[in-house]
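Quick one: structure tokens for this chain, please?
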Amino acid sequence: MSQPWSDGPQPLYTPFFGVMGAASAMIFSALGAAYGTAKSGTGIAAMSVMRPELIMKSVIPVVMAGIIGIYGLVVSVVIIGDINKASYTLFK
């Protein structure tokens, strides 16, 4: 049975796409976390005028948006950890 991958030489651009995958994981998760923080921050500011006693409860969405950025960092580290000279023959 044939395998869909080969152990032979690979194109020069394979490490580029591996690194770009890690970079895009970090970039898009940071953008999403920043957007979520901004949207929840404006909601907190608007809500604190009406009911100032609920400010600490409404910090939870800001924390959850920050966790998304941390998950993106973890995914990018996992992707970078798989890029090595054994799996990419032309990785320099």
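Residues 52 and 77 are 40 Å apart (CA to CA).
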